[in-house]
Amino acid sequence: MTSAALPRPPFDPQLEAVLGEIAAVAPLTMTRELIPLVRQNPAFHLTEDDYERMGLIVRDVSIPGYQGDEILVSVITRKDHSPGGPGIYHTHGGGMISGDRFAGLQAVLPWVLDNDAVLVTVEYRLAPEFPDPYPVEDCYAGLVWAAENADEIGFHPKRLFIAGASAGGGLAAGTALIARDRKGPTLIGQMLAYPMLDDRNQTVSSYQYDGAGLWDRESNLLGWSCLLGDRRGTDDVSIYAAPARATDLSGLPPAFIDCGSAEVFRDEDVAYASALWAAGVQAELHVWPGGWHGFDLGAPDSDMSKAMSTARRAWVARLLNP
Questions:
Q1: Which of 12, 208, 263, 285 has the highest local Cβ count within 10 Å?
Q2: Which residue numbers delimit the Alpha/beta hydrolase fold-3 domain (predicted)?
């Protein structure tokens, strides 16, 4: 398959206008040369004033990561937090090559505020300096720490779910698979926001958005190449790095999956939801028409972003209040 002649769903008009504004100030396709610059100028961050205005406390903790190496997590709670409620374990996005534990939290913090939840967000190590399995194993190490310290940080260990967006969504799915296979912490749910799941990049949508939209095909190939090196697209890739490769999704917690119809991840995300259903796992799937990758963060005031946020918030409420 090639990209040249493929028709593709158009962008939503509101989102297309914002995409044009972004393209006017920054390249939409990620390159290896841009990685240092993107890391120096992290996107989708809140300020200290934002956390203060929301009535939230942020506390950093050093914990053992993969192979015992030290990594950081941040624990975020309401100032009026009461112990014993739910816990949320967060894995950030950034294509496996950028971002930090605070990236994209504006999409997650409403669930903390709504439900008096404790949020633990992990600073996993990034590719290419730390290729697979570092990122997903750091995420799993952080999950184990969160569950083992639930009483101390103030949530009930049986009310913990995992959440991530983009690469963080893929890492959340991979971490849930590890937790199942190693009989690790019990998760009550997995929130997979437009997750990055499949290193093979052979779906129709992965070709449709080649040179179009945010985090296009070339960006995605770069992210997977940094994570997997020469293993990308071969048989030597674990299901924890690329959860789309898993052939047994039984025993996983209920999932929420969303994506845009106009992004590279559309088909692999829909396929993952179908595979979960085939395995007897509950999954809720939303495909937002004309949505480009990460539109809720890039265009938060658009009608589509508000609808996406409402759908996620409702799923979390149902998950935590069955």
A1: 263
A2: 89-295
Residue 7 lies in a domain: no
Structure-token pair, residue 192 = 């997979």
In this prediction, residue 4 carries a pLDDT of 62
**Residue 154 lies inside a defined structural domain of this protein:** yes
Q: Residue 128: how many CB atoms within 10 A of its CB?
A: 16
DSSP secondary structure string for all residues of 115-137:
HT-EEEEE-PPPTTTS-TTHHHH
Domain that holds residue 123: 13-320
Q: Do residues 190 and 258 lie in contact, with contact meaning Cβ atoms separated by under 8 Å?
A: no
Reported as a single tens digit per residue, the pLDDT across 169-190 is: 999 999 999 999 999 999 999 9
CATH number, domain of 229, equals: 3.40.50.1820
**Residue 27 near residue 34, CB atoms below 8 Å:** yes
Distance from C-alpha of 85 to C-alpha of 82, rounded to nearest angstrom: 7
- Map residue 315 onto helix, strand or coil: helix
Flag whether 19 is in a domain: yes
pLDDT at position 3 is: 65
In contact, 157 and 146? CB cutoff 8 Å: no
Exposed/middle/buried for 305, CB within 10 Å: 0-12, 13-18, 19+? buried
- The pair of three-digit structure tokens given for residue 93, joined into one six-digit string: 């996005």
193 close to 169: Cβ distance less than 8 angstroms: yes
Residue 4 within a domain: no
Cα gap 33→21, rounded to integer Å: 22
